[in-house]
Design goal:
- The structure holds two protein chains of two kinds.
- Chain A is mainly β.
- Chain A has no helices and eleven strands.
- In chain A, β5 and β6 form a beta hairpin.
- Chain A is globular and about 40 Å long.
- Chain B is mostly beta strands.
- Helices cover 0% and strands 51% of the residues of chain B.
- Chain B has no helices and eleven strands.
- In chain B, a hairpin with a 6-residue loop joins β9 and β10.
- Chain B is globular and about 40 Å long.
- Chain B starts with a strand and ends with a strand.
- Classes of the chains: A mainly beta, B mainly beta.
């Protein structure tokens, strides 16, 4: 069973500063790793796929890196609208067995 | 513009049934697999089920296998989730999502529909 572990659980950062979120897979997922942002009362929104490719309309301040089992989401200069919960997700080839991390809450310091 | 609109959620007693619908627009529905993901109150995301573009292949998480059935109607651009033998642990917001090609990432999500299983 694939397990995705995110750290930290909560991250407190001031607006304008950089935020770094981590995700670890229990076994290699190659680059089949996505990041989603979820704000209260809203559906998740795709930010990054292929570990490092920004989805359509996602600002350049969001970047992803990593491969295999270790991944990072970096937000270079936090804006007020970036404070949310972030989930990583592994997506293997079809058939699907999507596994999500438990989430990292990014809060205003 | 891709839009996904879920409906059918509500309050149901343990052991009961409910059918969720997800109406899709803005893309060629039959060309894309679709999936359901749920989120229990205050918890994270859990993949539930998926269906191929043709509807010929379906997939389920172990937690719902044998109780939930996913299907799709191309004439109505709608995907369904029939949920039987519901348990308190099935209480969640249920989201439908479009599966991107060729990556299989979930690129568009609906706003969700709340299912509450309680007596």
């Amino acid at each position: 069973e694939m397990v995705m572990t995110q750290s930290p659980t909560t991250l407190s950062v001031s607006p304008g500063e950089r935020a770094t979120l981590s995700c670890r897979a229990s076994r290699s997922v190659s680059s089949n790793l996505a990041w989603y942002q979820q704000k209260p009362g809203q559906a998740p929104r795709l930010l990054i796929y292929g570990a490092s490719t920004r989805a359509t309309g996602i600002p350049a301040r969001f970047s992803g890196s990593g491969s295999g089992t270790e991944f990072t989401l970096t937000i270079s200069s936090l804006q007020s609208e970036d404070f949310a919960v972030y989930y990583c997700q592994e997506y293997n080839a079809w058939p699907p067995r999507y596994t999500f991390g438990q989430g990292t809450k990014l809060e205003i310091k | 513009e891709v839009q996904l609109l879920e409906s059918g959620g509500g309050l149901v007693q343990p052991g009961g049934s409910l059918r969720l619908s997800c109406a899709a627009s803005g893309f060629t529905f039959s060309s894309y697999a679709m999936t359901w993901v749920r989120q229990a109150p205050g918890k994270g995301l859990e993949w539930v089920s998926a269906i191929s573009g043709s509807g010929g292949s379906t997939y389920y998480a172990d937690s719902v296998k044998g109780r939930f059935t996913i299907s799709r109607d191309t004439s109505k651009n709608t995907v369904y989730l029939q949920m039987n033998s519901l348990r308190a642990g099935d209480t969640a917001v249920y989201y439908c999502a479009k599966v991107a090609r060729p990556t299989h990432v979930l690129d568009y999500w609906g706003q969700g529909t709340l299912v509450t299983v309680s007596s």
